[in-house]
Amino acid sequence: MRVSLNQITEYLDFALPPTDELVGMINRQLGTVEDVTDLSEHFRGAVIVKVDSCEKHPNADKLHVCMVDDGSGDLTQVVCGAPNVKAGMFAVWLKPGATVPSTATDTEPFVLGARELRGVMSNGMLASPKELGLGDSHEGILEIDPDEAKPIGADVVPGVPFADAYGLNDVLIEIENKMFTHRPDLFGQLGVAREIAGIQGKKFISPDWYDIERLSLPGTATDASELTVFNDAGDGAPRFMAQIIRGVTIKPSPIWLQCALIRMGGKPINNVVDATNYIMLLTAQPTHAYDLAKIRGASIGARMAVKGETIRLLNGKTYELDDSDIVVADKEGPIGLAGIMGGGDSEVSNTTTDIVLEVANFDMYSVRKSSMRHGVFTDALTRFNKGQSPYQNPVVLSLLSSLITDISGGVASKQSYDVGDSYDRGYDKLQHDETGTITSEFINRRLGLSLTDEEVAALLSNVEFATDTDETGIDYQVPFWRTDIEQAEDIVEEVGRLYGFDKLPRELPMRSIAPAAENAHLMLKRIARTNLYQAGANEVLTYSFVHKKLLEQAGQDAEHAYKLSNALSPDLQYYRLSLTPSLLDKVHPNIKAGHGEFALFEWNKVHYKGEMDELEPEVPNEDEHIALVIAYDVKHQPKGSPYYSARRYASEVIDTDESELLPMSQFDFARDEWARQLAAPYEPERSVVIVKNDRVRGVIGEFTSSVRAKFKLPEYTAGFELHTDLVTTKAAMYKPLSRFPSVTQDVSIRVDATTHYDALLRVVRETIAEHRGNIDIALEPIGVYEPEGEAFKTTTLRLKMTSHETTLRDQDVKPIVEAIAHEVDAKLHGSVV
Amino acid sequence: MSPSDRIATARAELLKRYETLSNKSDILKSRELKELFSVIPTLEPHERAGFGQSVNALSNELKAMVDSESVAVKELRSIDVTAPFDSNAPKPELLPSEQGSIHPLMAEISRLSEIFSRMGFVIEQSREIDDQYHMFEALNFPKGHPARDDYDTFMTVETDSDGSPLIAPAHTSTMQNRILKKYKSNLESGDAIAAVVPDRVFRNEDVDARHEHTFYQVEGVYVAENVHAGMLIATLQKFLEEYYERTLNVRVNPFYFPFTEPSFEFALSCPFCGGEDPACKVCSGEGWIELLGCGMIHPNVLKAAGIDPNVHTGFAFGCGVDRLVMMKYAIEDVRHFHSAKLDFLKQF
Lengths: 833, 348
What we know:
The complex is a heterodimer.
Chain A: E1 2-4, H1 5-9, H2 19-29, E2 33-38, E3 46-56, E4 64-69, E5 75-80, E6 90-94, E7 114-117, E8 120-123, E9 125-126, H3 162-165, E10 171-175, H4 189-199, E11 228-231, E12 239-248, H5 255-263, H6 271-283, E13 288-291, E14 299-304, E15 310-312, E16 318-320, E17 326-330, E18 334-337, E19 341-342, E20 355-361, H7 364-374, H8 379-384, H9 393-408, E21 409-419, H10 422-425, E22 435-438, H11 440-447, H12 453-462, E23 466-470, E24 473-477, H13 488-499, H14 520-534, E25 538-539, E26 545-546, H15 548-553, E27 574-575, H16 580-585, H17 587-592, E28 597-606, E29 623-632, H18 642-650, E30 660-663, H19 673-679, E31 682-692, E32 695-703, H20 705-710, E33 716-723, E34 743-752, H21 757-771, E35 775-785, E36 792-803, H22 810-828, E37 831-832
Chain B: H1 3-20, H2 31-39, H3 45-73, H4 104-118, E1 122-123, H5 132-135, E2 154-159, E3 165-168, H6 176-182, H7 184-188, E4 193-202, E5 214-225, H8 229-244, E6 250-257, E7 260-269, E8 288-297, H9 299-304, E9 312-320, H10 321-329, H11 342-345
Parallel strand pairs in B: 1-4
Antiparallel strand pairs in B: 2-3, 4-5, 5-9, 6-7, 7-8, 8-9
């Protein structure tokens, strides 16, 4: 929202503080100031002059040599090429050294000098409207009528700075719109002026024209013979007011109005259109003018569009409508997209003589939806979609029609039209009756203040709440333009802001010293992360959204993934099914960047379509996984299969000894589609699935050839992905120390090469359990030797035996090793070597 | 030579050469194949289609050979996946511990959480898919409200039971209603609800050095009897002073959020230059850093969780984590966070 300080000063009966101070105040008590522009800078060196004489240029047909009077007593020579330059006229002279105002914000503003034009010295130039930033006209120089009535500015005499004469000596303050989402009134200068008074503790009084009690409304009985005004939009258009003005002359606006528009961010077009925009910028109420001659069937009003109807808007584009769009229509069809933009076919043009003014109120939700659907965003929409007050329509219409008759001639019809459900809703009443009672205690409790009822009432009445204090508290009546006050807390906000939030007492809450509960899950996450980091792995974060291609490259089926309907690009279209593909995707770039050995891990969420949350069945289930990928390039590749490396890393976060690890090649995925998706990138011959409570909860392994090729993985790559259910922290299991020394014995067992390690281990463990007596035995694998070309392998296990009763001797240990040899032979046809 | 003969000749030649190649995929770059393709546009229109198809067929045949080769060569023999290490190989080594790193965002979240934890806040997690009720309705954003436009929300094709698209939460406030309900019993026993939610959020925004569609936010909620707006300011100030290990000035600007009333934008004096350095890169010499949005929880939000706003009041705040980390280490590009670049990660 751009605020013109010159404009708001018009509504204030006190002087504004210095700009810096004011900006600070606005920041603290109204909304964030994004930008401050000193407009007078753009017009420095632009001075009003009287053309004293105007002679033909001796060497050029189209140029004139003028002597201009800048009030200094001396005349200055300026060469001018405009056809309309003549002696006696008032014009704007850009002195040497002045910047052409329309280029002031360019990266290289155009600065004037004194230079010869066809042998005649020209000091600066006389400016066209375009050069002054007033519209597009540059056929001639701006001609100023010194006697034209204007509401602000210094008198027009030679030597007066142009900016001073037309209010362009202005400071513009840009306030962030977001702050005003709930404040439709603050999209007009008047509303901001009121707040600026309020935050300075000054009482604001709205100008007479905005006072609905003083307004003498034109009659509202319609004269059907002239124009029928209808409103069939129901809730879509709570109020639709219209008035006819006949006999207008369309021409450029008076200069003061053009200047007022550019100050507030508008753009001059013609007097009628400028007037509608100007009134909107002042009051926040959008208005529109239609050419009466182009209204077909002498009928205008609001209705819902019929599906399939089309409309060409002022932007020249045609839109297809449906029955959720509100339109302004005549007898034949739509002539405007309500609240958003007028139609191109009913536009006011240079030949227009009679106009219809529309000042309507439209439902904020409907216009927002239409604009989103059609992709049309306008200043009118920005205001309507905040929910303008329907009470202000009559005062705005009255102001608009009197301004237009002032500047365009013409006669306003005696009657205006006011149709819609407004009578049922009571909008025709002079004051709406939103009232309430609040106590200063209620307010103080929420702000930590100790204001009295009277102080509260004073703050509120500064911004024109009607208030009355008695023993029950403060009775207040909400002013008609405030559509945001719905409950007592809104008054708290109002009081706090007007008082100054920065003055609130800053004190910490007092509370019980009971410790806040630890989040066990997050604790686990921290431990897992620390373990992996200490094991040399790097934590990464990758996007939750992936490309369909990534899923497919990993062998997954996008059918199972939630899909975004408004993704930024195909790269981010699907929620991921598992983390592994995202990590695989990051391996090659890091290898290319020169990293020869690394392990990437991530702890994040995954989603499988159709699985709903157990406790909240309304929302999808979210599983948390921890995944890791370890990769070594050829140069750094260690001995052995990479699977074991991934498994070693997995043992940093889960207890691999205690988990149920099933060779993936033996697992039947038919009964668990989710597990199939998880396992898809992994090579069944070199992976395990981890099963817990009968469900697959993880996988450790190497990747399929296809995945390796597609992700350009080095040969030594493996990984794991685990549901975080599996992640455990080992609690220490202390055993009292023995007074007797331990004995260590390595046992090498030869079995068939196809015998799995876990089968061997099971036999050894069972045997130990049966024969150990009172001896504690710890098992540690030392090595597996598999000679090339042989069908057997030798596994060496280290047994560390401890007794709490005696010093172990050979005869204590021997039976155990013999028992192992016996069992290995019996169950696995193997032998101890 | 007729066109079809040309192809046959080339095919024979290529198949012969294929056997001799060490890098089989080189066959796809062969001169013969390129020539055949270049002939297509020179042919009469009636010949073009047939010839083109034949050339493509040959090209596909060669591709299939190359593909099958690469898979066949790398066919992996089965290993004993139940063993802790490979046959004839030592127990696998972990990488040197100095190579490891914790992601800077996660490290910062741990630190933030630890401070809030000391201040008596419980730590909760957020969601990555949620329904519109939790993201909007429960937070006093009615359907169709313009404030929803301020959150460029990703939506899914899939819908909830109302037929509304599911969403990728644009703020961790999506957990607020759940947290208020979960800890409501604290209020009944005269204690406070105090929770923070540091987690991942999403905005449908084009990515550049300063904008990410995926980022982290920490949401805070505090509800008890007689909680006032001054306490909000004091609590955040205390937190930030602890975080930056120095005294700071803070200020609030009025703002608008549907789920708080009043709402504020919260700024702190620049902890890096203290407002002393006009060339400070962090605060652009302004001396203030706008850090977060906050406010007193809107009565409708409390009501939606079954809390009586006449008895209990509270405050909430939401702070971007990425920005804190970027300021702390002078990180120039937000995209590094999700790049998984080791060159970046290993610096932390």
